[in-house]
Amino acid sequence: MERLERSGRWLRAGLAGGRVSRRLPWLLLAIVLLGSALKDGDLVPETPMRNKRNPLNVYFVKVAWAWTFWLLLPFITVTTYQFAKSKFLYGTTKSLLMVLRRLSALAVGTAIWYICTGLFMYIENLTGACSTSGKLSEPHRLYATKQECHQDNGIWNGFDISGHCFLLSYCALMIVEEVAVLEGLSIDQNSKLRVVINGLFVSLCFLTMIWVFMFLCTAVYFHDFSQKLLGVLIGLSAWYGTYRFWYLKPFSPGLPLPNIPLSSKKYSYSR
């Protein structure tokens, strides 16, 4: 428990003041630029991360939104409820409504993930063609989708916007925004609730490190530069459009509570 407390305290100090949330978007763009330059110059060493079947890719990145969703769900629930009860002095009903409002950010994130990944697949199918090793005597078949092509052991050549760059950047930025709630949350050091929140917080920080590391691996090993750049720009746009624009409005999931000016009627939760 003491080690968890020390880890949480050290990570909170690193996130204090919003330094990470301000610098992370620029770091992700720099990774794409530098990683693509290394890849194009054939300067990247052979490592297990070049294989798409590496454990981090299979068990984490392939289900990145699920990991992000199921760790943020209890974290947002517990911290929002605790903050509402202690700072706003709301009753149980008001506090639960505030929790539901903040949890709707996860519904927004799910919609963004679903729409964008579907759009990426549609663009790849629309712009692609299938290359197969069929015999010359066989009639030439037209393939409508990447899936049909792969069923015949073909190679689909289309504009494949990097879903990894999009999703990993969006998930990392979303986590950094949500854990900012701890800057204004005070809990008794010997409380079991503090242990739970610290455990979730450290897990989310560890998950963010995995997302950034796998983002780096994507940048140096996979996709063309334009595909990666477009992917990360869409991820950054999704983050900016929600946390820097829409969530400042009254009819939205709202920002994590310490970021809401308590004296501002426009941005505060209605009592």
UniProtKB/TrEMBL annotation:
Residues of the signal peptide: 1-41
GO CC aspect terms: endoplasmic reticulum membrane
Compartmental location: Endoplasmic reticulum membrane
Membrane topology summary: Multi-pass membrane protein
Key words, A-Z: Endoplasmic reticulum, Hydrolase, Lipid metabolism, Membrane, Signal, Transmembrane, Transmembrane helix
Gene Ontology molecular function, alphabetical: coenzyme A diphosphatase activity
A Pfam family it matches: FIT
Family annotation (PANTHER family): ACYL-COENZYME A DIPHOSPHATASE FITM2
Designated name of the protein: FITM2 protein
Annotated source species: Rynchops niger
Upper taxonomic lineage: Eukaryota, Metazoa, Chordata, Craniata, Vertebrata
Gene: Fitm2
